[in-house]
């Protein structure tokens, strides 16, 4: 009979894989994609290189999993704020951009890795897919604002694409050489203000 893993074995393997991805994410945040070798990740996870390959067939496969998990979490957080946060659509747009930017500044190494750092080609492809997901959640709240008469008539998809690109571009340099203290706070405030102007929100009275 072929060997079948017991539930206990499956649980141990799942826990080991989860630990490996968590440690790989930390290595990427601290050292970047280029330096997140299988050897470095194995050392950080306290396992052998061979054990890493039991879970992932290649460094690229591990990098893609790290990117998907980390980026997926950020998209989910942003989407929750934009869809379920307090206030009207314009207020939620401002809140969402602020939350996204502050989270990036608090996790600078990881945010830079997700947004712009040189990476495996497969990670570059994943970036394109996650840009689409960011655009989708921005388009939802812009469309809602237009329908409520709070934003001028516009193509929400175009505005969402502009927001996605501009927010990432504004953050890239500060994340590579991060501002601290008041500078970081001012950056977030300016980014929120720019996003509202991009969507055509009326200036606060």
TrEMBL record:
Does the keyword Aminoacyl-tRNA synthetase feature in the UniProt annotation? no
Where would I find the HTH tetR-type domain in this sequence?
14-74
| Alphabetical UniProt keywords | DNA-binding
The protein's matches in Pfam families, at most eight in alphabetical order, are given as: TetR_C_24 (PF17932), TetR_N (PF00440)
UniProt GO MF annotations: DNA-binding transcription factor activity; transcription cis-regulatory region binding
Residue ranges forming the DNA-binding region read: 37-56
SUPFAM superfamilies the UniProt entry points to:
Homeodomain-like (SSF46689), Tetracyclin repressor-like, C-terminal domain (SSF48498)
Instruction: List the protein's name.
Output: TetR/AcrR family transcriptional regulator
Q: Is Nucleotide-binding tagged as a keyword? A: no
């Amino acid at each position: 009979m072929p060997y079948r893993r017991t539930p206990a074995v499956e649980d141990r393997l799942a826990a080991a894989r989860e630990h490996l991805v968590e440690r790989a994410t930390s290595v990427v945040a601290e050292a970047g994609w280029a330096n997140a070798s299988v050897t470095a990740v194995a050392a950080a996870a306290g396992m052998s290189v061979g054990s890493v390959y039991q879970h992932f067939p290649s460094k690229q496969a591990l990098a893609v999993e790290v990117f998907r998990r980390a980026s997926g979490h950020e998209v989910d957080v942003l989407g929750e704020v934009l869809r379920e946060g307090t206030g009207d659509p314009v207020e939620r747009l401002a809140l969402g951009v602020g939350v996204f930017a502050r989270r990036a500044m608090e996790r600078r190494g990881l945010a830079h890795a997700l947004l712009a750092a040189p990476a495996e080609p497969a990670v570059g492809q994943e970036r394109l897919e996650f840009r689409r997901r960011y655009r989708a959640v921005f388009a939802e709240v812009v469309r809602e604002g237009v329908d409520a008469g709070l934003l001028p008539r516009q193509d929400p998809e175009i505005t969402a694409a502009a927001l996605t690109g501009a927010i990432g571009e504004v953050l890239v340099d500060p994340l590579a050489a991060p501002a601290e203290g008041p500078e970081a706070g001012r950056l977030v405030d300016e980014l929120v203000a720019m996003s509202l102007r991009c969507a055509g929100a009326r200036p606060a009275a």
